[in-house]
């Protein structure tokens, strides 16, 4: 939080865009240290997240504008709200702890819930719909690409065999039936990678990221900064490659390698263990 607030501190009055405003924690940290002339546009696809960030950021009054929108459409959303350039932009990818633990949408393998997994429950097919309709090779690809799952093919076969899958318990049972017990990972739950991969597919998270990065870069004011926190190697690769390409022209990477959490941070918040923060600055 402190590192993000420091790296992305707006150095002039203007707009900050938080493309994943979530519970509003980063937004609050950025606004607290910014001059009063700095305003924030916060986007989230999850209406429940917006209700929470609205409450958390209420004391900033009309300095905060919230929008129910995907960062996939960050340029159009900025235009709608009269934002032409941004001093800083943040994308903190994935799901929040609140979504994992309290949304009852089946993001977690630890509780028995319907297999929904949509970040925006007003749109698109659910995880259950997707698992009903994808072919075995498509499922294998998703589990491999988005989950780095070494047993992707077996798990895909078990899912197809056990359809329809309606609850998180059904999906956990399919994974457990596919992976022999001695091959279960030591530090992770055996279904962790499958759940992550299916969630990323339901929400087309890598697709949204690919579309958002060039738009976000173009929205930056001169010396404006874009920061992206990724929790998954595939997403971090997208950020790394896009930043490398952009830094051939009007941008520069803020630091040569990504920032990762300290041991203390991981102890306090184990979910941070795979986080990587990369930053890009507009130089022209
Ligand atoms: C890790 S949380 C962000 C937490 C936030 N930085 C905070 O301090 O509370 C990720 C958030 O991004 C949202 N999200 C995921 N994909 C999105 C997208 N394509 N567009 C907008 N929001 C998205 C999720 O709904 C979730 O609330």
Characteristics:
alpha/beta; seven-stranded mixed beta sheet; 13 helices; 44% helix; binds S-adenosylmethionine
Descriptive account of the structure:
- By secondary structure, the chain is an alpha/beta fold.
- The chain contains 13 helices and seven strands.
- It has helices spanning 2-7, 25-32, 47-56, 74-80, 97-102, 127-133, 136-147, 152-162, 168-178, 192-202, 205-219, 233-246, 263-268; strands at 14-18, 38-44, 64-68, 86-92, 220-230, 251-253, 276-282.
- It has a seven-stranded mixed beta sheet, sandwiched between helices.
- Helix 7 (136-147) packs across helix 10, helix 8 packs across helix 9 (168-178) and helix 11 (205-219) packs parallel to helix 12.
- It is globular.
- It starts with a helix and ends with a strand.
- S-adenosylmethionine (SAM) is lined by residues 19-20, 22-26, 43-46, 49, 70-72, 92, 94-96, 119, 208.
Topology:
Layout: H1 2-7, E1 14-18, H2 25-32, E2 38-44, H3 47-56, E3 64-68, H4 74-80, E4 86-92, H5 97-102, H6 127-133, H7 136-147, H8 152-162, H9 168-178, H10 192-202, H11 205-219, E5 220-230, H12 233-246, E6 251-253, H13 263-268, E7 276-282
Parallel strand pairs: 1-2, 1-4, 2-3, 4-5
Antiparallel strand pairs: 5-7, 6-7
Bound molecules: S-adenosylmethionine.
The site of S-adenosylmethionine has 21 residues, from α2 and β2.
